[in-house]
Amino acid sequence: MATEKMEESVKRFFVGKEKDLIQAKRKNITVGDRDLLIIYHQGMFYAMDQHCYHAGGSLLNGDIEEINSKHCIVCPKHKYKISLAQGECLYKASNPKDKTQPPRWYSKGIKQRVHNVTVLDGDIFVTLSEIPKWIESDYYQTENVHVKQYLI
Ligand code: FES
């Protein structure tokens, strides 16, 4: 469970020491009432909802691939690709109207809620996203789903 600190009127949650997260590269943590995945990849920290928007799979052990210059985590369950920075789901497909063209990457839009990460004096803090619209990964953060996941 993350600890809460108030700074500059922004609610930031301490999620770990920078050196520990660099070493671990991944960490599941509950922040407020959300289950998050913190990732360190190629010099950057990212935070996103821990359960994949598609069917709730854990993203903890997903591979990371670069797709269209975006670092994406590949959900271990059904291989959906989700950008670390925006939570955008990318998929590859052919144009059904032009079969002569090779398949290319398309976006399904933002499906996974991502959160802001701040590094302060060797500590890592997360500020939860306050984007008011529904993002599909929100479903797996609701209390009913939390209960089901822990009973299974
Ligand atoms: Fe299906 Fe993640 S749960 S792709």
Provide an overview of this structure.
The protein is mainly beta and 152 residues long. The chain has a domain at 3-64 and 110-151: Rieske [2Fe-2S] iron-sulphur domain (Rieske Iron-sulfur Protein, 3-layer Sandwich). Helix content is 11%, strand content 47%. It has a seven-stranded antiparallel β-sheet. Strand 1 (3-7) and strand 2 form a beta hairpin. The structure holds FE2/S2 (inorganic) cluster. FE2/S2 (inorganic) cluster is lined by residues 52, 54-57, 75, 77-78, 80. FE2/S2 (inorganic) cluster binds at residues 52, 54-57, 75, 77-78, 80.
Instruction: Count every helix, treating DSSP H or I runs of 4 or more residues as helices.
Output: 2
| Strand order in space, largest sheet | 1-2-12-11-5-4-3
Given this structure, which CATH class of the domain at 3-64 and 110-151 is correct? Mainly Beta
What Rg, in angstroms, do the CA atoms define? 16 Å
The CATH architecture designation of the domain at 3-64 and 110-151 is 3-layer Sandwich
What small molecules does the structure contain?
FE2/S2 (inorganic) cluster
- Spell the H/E element sequence: EEHEEEEEEEEEEH
Number-wise, the strands total 12
- Whole-Å distance between the termini? 21 Å
Helical amount: 10-25%
Q: What fraction strand? A: over 45%
- CATH level-4 homologous superfamily of the domain at 3-64 and 110-151: Rieske [2Fe-2S] iron-sulphur domain
- The global form is globular
Q: Give me the secondary-structure category.
A: mainly beta
Oligomer: single chain
Q: Biggest β-sheet, characterized?
A: 7 strands, antiparallel
What CATH calls the topology of the domain at 3-64 and 110-151 is: Rieske Iron-sulfur Protein
Mean pLDDT: 91
- In the predicted model, the low-confidence regions spanning at least 5 consecutive residues are none
